[in-house]
Amino acid sequence: MLLVLIALFAVAGIAPFLFRMLGRSTFYVLAAVPALAFVWLLANFSSFIEADQGAASGSPNAPPVQMFNWLPSLGVHLDFRMDALAAVLCLLVLGVGALVLFYCARYFKNEDPHTGAFGAQLLAFAASMFGLVTADDMILMFIFWELTTILSFLLIGFNRTRMGARRSALTALMVTTFGGLTMLAGLIMLGTAAGTYRISEVLALAPELTRMGTYIDVAIVLMLVGAISKSALIPFHFWLPGAMAAPTPVSAYLHAAAMVKAGIYLIARFAPGFHETAFWQPVLLWLGLATMLIGGWRALKQNDLKLVLAYGTVSQLGFLVLILGIGTPNAAMAGLAMMLAHGFFKATLFLIVGIIDHKSGTRDIRQLSGLRSSSPVLFVVAVIAAASMAGVPPLFGFVAKEAVYESLLEHASSNGAPGMVLLLGVMLGSAMTFAYAARFLWGGFARKAGMKPTPFPKVPWLFLAPLLVLTLATVVFAWVPGSLEAAITPYVGLFPAADHPIHLAIWHGFTPALGLSLVSMSAGVVIFVARKRISKVQAMVPAYFDAERDYKLIITGVDNLAIWLTGRTQRGSLSFYLVVILMTALVLPTVVSLWLQTPAPGNLIAFDTPAQLVIGCIMILGALGALQANRRFLAVLMVSVSGYGMAAIFALQGAPDLAVTQLLVETIVLVAFVLALRALPVELWSKNPTGHRLVRALIGIGFGASMIYIAATSMASRIADPISLAYPELAYTGGAGKNIVNVTLVDMRAWDTFGEITVLAAAATGVASLIFVRGRGDKTLNAALVPRGSVDHGSEAIGGASHSRSGMAVAKNFAISSKDSWLVAGHTLAPERRSITFEVVTRLLFHTILLASVYLLLAGHNTPGGGFAGGLLAGLALAIRYLAGGRVELAEAIPVSPGTLMGSGLALAAASAVAPLFFGAQIFTSAAIEFSWPLFGDHKFVTSTIFDIGVYLVVVGLVIDVLRSLGSEIDERSEGRSPTDTHDLVSDAETGVGR
Amino acid sequence: MSTNVTLLIVMGVLFAVGIYLLLERSLTRVLLGIVVLGNGVNLLILASGGRRGEAPLYEADLGAEEYSDPLPQALILTAIVITFAVTAFMLGMIYRSWAISRADVVADDDEDLRVSQQSTFDFEEDSPVPEDTTEFDGDEIQPDTIQETGPRA
What we know:
The complex is a heterodimer of chains A (995) and B (153).
Chain A: H1 2-22, H2 26-43, H3 45-49, E1 65-71, E2 76-81, H4 84-107, H5 115-134, H6 138-156, H7 163-194, H8 199-204, H9 206-210, H10 214-230, H11 239-242, H12 248-257, H13 261-274, H14 280-299, H15 305-326, H16 329-360, H17 371-374, H18 376-390, H19 396-445, H20 461-479, H21 482-492, H22 512-529, H23 531-540, H24 547-569, H25 574-595, E3 604-605, H26 610-628, H27 632-653, H28 656-677, H29 693-716, H30 727-734, H31 740-748, H32 750-772, H33 805-816, H34 836-859, H35 867-893, H36 898-918, E4 928-933, E5 937-942, H37 944-973, H38 986-991
Helix pairs in contact in A: 1-2, 1-5, 2-4, 2-5, 4-5, 4-12, 4-16, 4-20, 4-21, 5-6, 6-7, 7-10, 10-13, 12-16, 13-15, 14-15, 14-19, 15-16, 15-19, 16-18, 16-19, 16-20, 16-21, 18-19, 18-20, 19-20, 19-22, 25-29, 26-27, 27-28, 28-35, 28-37, 30-31, 31-32, 32-36, 32-37, 34-35, 35-37, 36-37
Chain B: E1 3-4, H1 5-22, H2 27-48, H3 70-101, H4 110-117, H5 123-126
Helix pairs in contact in B: 1-2, 2-3
């Protein structure tokens, strides 16, 4: 049976390609698949129904099963089990599926686009239904259940250009998914209580489970919500008439024969075990009855033939739920027989409507006339199907309805008044069924007074064939119901045996059931004859209960709530978001720390050294100065004061690595700030200062104070020794290095560092992309190709007074002399930009600094330094070179692109991480290699240094990217303009001025 | 462990100033706020390491508790470099914002405002749709109009 499932899905998968080759005839190929499966089903039918239905999967006489482990830890398995109930459902799923696909081949045109997807979806739907009824695992069943929901959504929305179809598809999706999710909750509750998700085991455990009381009652109700939403019971019924926006074959298959039967199936599946739970009967019997009556009532006032059938289906589904909900063996027999009968006649009726619509272009009762004489064959088929629906003998619908009346009489005799009400209600419902069946025939085929016959071409036999097969089933099984009874009986055996088991037969003699049939049919005749009077009554009675309107109100309410909530929270103001986040971060931990009665801060010391106090005061002054500064660079400088203060604090605290790194970073950040912000106005405020100063100050102070308190209490709460007590020994023996911080970075916590340098590379690329916009700007600049004195011409204002004429003369002299070339590209710089002192100093310092940076890198394993500090120092050397010689100088200084640098750095770091794997060690294992060279003496090389070199390269690349982007590129964009001139490209394009 | 009041107070001030600046509209001040906040956080991590000690450079005769705690130092070191990268990135953003729109302030997001002011009427969901009584519009015999009818509302 797994093979059948796979074959169905597989052919669905390739269907679109087949359609490209074969056109609409592909439907015949698609129909062959479920048809073959149907043959397989019939060939093996005896093995399904002769098995012991209640036997545990795997025992000798159990129904055929196929079981695979899927998520054993969650108790979810790919279990399939073909028992009698599944086999009976498969008759409909595969049989009607094959016929409907066959019918589609004449329904659609070759030219229709999207039929490929349609065919695939329809076949995939058949596959999902097959999976749904054979699944023996509740979670697996749920997955197929939702697959049918999604495919139903796609198929209803097939006419994607029609708003009505899209809307109906969405409604169906929302309603049935709501039910499906509720059902999932119920299934999980049930599975948890039973300790297994295998349906056959859950049913075997049902007697113990039902004794658990309310928990199981609730689980079952939640599960039933899924069933009644899928089978379109009140209050979920409205999606089904809406779903009539689907092409008619879809309506015939999904919304009459198969998908809506999924709910019926679920009820039938769980009825043997759980029909005695507290809410089962109240929910199913009364909702079923109400649905039957309201559906019938609505069907009587429809003018669209398809809607007559749709509301009729709603009514019949209520009817089926009601019968199967009773939970007696006789009712189970009657219910399944009725379900089969419904599958035969309702699918036929829908297919008839499809043909009428296809041939005449309308389904409106008020426009159709005289079809009886123009298409007699179709009319006969329609009469048989409608009569079967109405319960008229000698058809299978009548046989099934007789069984229903028998079981209802039995139920009424043992349940008193409620049973009588149920019986009378069903009789009324049956009368309405008779009436709308008559309305269907009259509306679709009668010659109406004052109307010309609707033009109606001949219907091809291929188009009619599927209807004839179904009609044949309706007629034949009325006379030989024994085979169907044999198929149903094993399922009935799951209930305790009945005192007087009923049998399907066309003639039981003059029984009360026959009497009830005759009475309800006579009432149906009356209702149909009096249809004009009744429709007047219907027009007067307002719709007291309009679930569709309520659904719309709910959806609109959700929309309104969403917009309201978004408007309140998503205000588009960054400061607002920040205030919310900060207030949360301020209030929550403070409240918690007070509430938890954390220890009061204790063991306070004022400072470690007096110098700390002095530096602390300077940092505070710097920070406060940054608040007051209203010039951009002043503010930056003030922040730098506190930054340099940090370096001093680090040095005092015994953290030389941090001090070095902070010092270098602070310097480079200062350069970056100046480079980036030179294009912006000098004054900090281009507009009015931000308001709410007091609020912001309060939040800031509150946050600072709360951080002080939290830090102090957390330090006072410390009871364990720090894990870093083991670090010195680990670093020295494990990492073969004396600088514990550096060994931590490149060895013990190398993963963190690897992550960090990746972030650095990303940030560097981000900076470059922000400035260069197109790519990283990895172009090469060659000093030999750049004209002398062309770079940086008048970009920034230079103080006039200090730049005397004689000074300019010296500068120009310097610029044109070729022998004193201190820098490679110094001559490219504009004369007034050049400084001989700066160039000479740069020339002297650059290589020294670079050498020092390499020393920091290599020695960093044992003394302060390492890849970060080394890389920053090298970056600083390049920054000096850039400042002295301009952008061409920078390009000449480092011929490799920063992208390459960072890439090789990351590659090197990754290689050092992976290499140990080849030596049988774990990732990031380091090894020390000792060697001695003449002159150099004894040395020890630790392999984690290679990782540090990678870090070095990435950091150098980052600094170069910053210099190139914020320095060189902005230079080039603002060449020849004063800082307050426009720097952007947009206005260039607008004014036509520019480079 | 001991709690260094000076470090905590400096940290508190840096937090307060950082957050005050962060809540500004001027992008430069926001960035400065982030830098100051970063310094405050680093100070917090440093202070949580306890008293000052010897520089964490291994010496055989020194007990493990004599060193200044190396773990917070390793954390801070990465934080310093990351803050540099973030600062550079934000500088790039400030320049770009200035170059494109001549603005160095955080503006309110128009899109967010538009969302919050939109009407609850949705044409797709709420407009009336006429009833269909056929799938085969217009042409009675040739049903090739299934797809081509277009929105009918």
